[in-house]
């Protein structure tokens, strides 16, 4: 309605000004002034209400992160874990037997024979070419025969054991391989035993105990003294472990010698985590 009023005013003004003697001279000057005045009046009538100022707080919301409680390393530890003898069924089955002990301590029901069957195997056969032994790689799967010393064999390293453990405890197996020996004390202080690869003499071995094999994934240095146990504790002098070869619980070895043996065999260790 206000726009129609504005149009009417302009038309009336034009009719009034045209007859004037000086219309042609002054109309151009007068009309913009009147038009502008009328338009300004319309604009004021239709002006939007002043904007409402709002304040927006862009500060990030502070969410308190709950940190898992730190495990204090104890001076000495002794864990009551089940002991299982690998003999007589598994002469070379120390690794799966130690895994069976670890799983049982975690509350998982299984047995060494079932684990031995399920464990990944390296299919390579032992052959000698140009004076060099060609055989499997224990990082890839169990090498040789686990059930008899009358057939060639060796054992298995931590990767296939961890893979098998994950089938029983999905997402809970913890690989400590390559870490300092001191870090094994963390799960032990939390009452969780540790699966390890060492040698059967629990000390650092001379080079004469080792040989190099050719495998499908490259040469590897091995020893027939390779062994696996479940570490159950320690103090300032000894490491304690369940030995599947003797069936002895909390067997002990000097902590310094045991550590050197473990490092020499590649610092391989596994445990599990709890929620």
Automatic annotation (TrEMBL):
Residues 80-244 form the Peptidase C39-like domain. It comes from the Bacteria. Gene3D superfamilies: Cysteine proteinases (3.90.70.10). CDD domains: Peptidase_C39A. InterPro entries: Peptidase_C39-like (IPR039564), Peptidase_C39_single_dom (IPR039563). Pfam families: Peptidase_C39_2. This is Peptidase C39-like domain-containing protein. It comes from Siminovitchia terrae (Bacillus terrae).
């Amino acid at each position: 309605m206000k726009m129609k009023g504005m149009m009417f005013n302009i038309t009336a003004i034009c009719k009034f000004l045209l007859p004037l003697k000086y219309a042609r001279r002054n109309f151009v000057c007068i009309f913009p002034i009147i038009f502008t005045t009328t338009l300004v009046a319309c604009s004021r009538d239709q002006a939007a209400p002043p904007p409402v100022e709002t304040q927006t707080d862009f500060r990030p919301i502070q969410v308190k992160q709950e940190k898992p409680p730190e495990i204090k390393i104890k001076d000495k530890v002794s864990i009551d874990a089940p002991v299982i003898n690998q003999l007589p069924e598994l002469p070379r089955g120390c690794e799966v037997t130690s895994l069976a002990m670890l799983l049982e301590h975690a509350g998982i029901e299984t047995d060494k024979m079932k684990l031995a069957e399920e464990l990944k195997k390296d299919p390579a056969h032992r052959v000698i070419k140009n004076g060099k032994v060609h055989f499997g790689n224990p990082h890839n799967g169990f090498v040789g025969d686990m059930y008899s010393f009358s057939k060639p064999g060796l054992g298995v390293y931590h990767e296939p054991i961890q893979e098998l453990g994950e089938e029983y405890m999905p997402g809970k197996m913890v690989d400590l391989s390559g870490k300092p020996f001191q870090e094994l004390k963390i799960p032990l202080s939390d009452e969780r035993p540790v699966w390890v690869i060492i040698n059967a003499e629990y000390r650092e071995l001379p080079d004469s105990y080792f040989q190099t094999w050719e495998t499908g994934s490259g040469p590897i240095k091995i020893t027939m003294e390779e062994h696996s146990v479940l570490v159950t504790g320690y103090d300032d002098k000894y490491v304690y472990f369940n030995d599947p070869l003797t069936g002895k619980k909390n067997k002990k070895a000097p902590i310094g010698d045991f550590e050197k043996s473990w490092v020499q065999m590649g610092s391989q260790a596994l445990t599990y985590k709890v929620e």
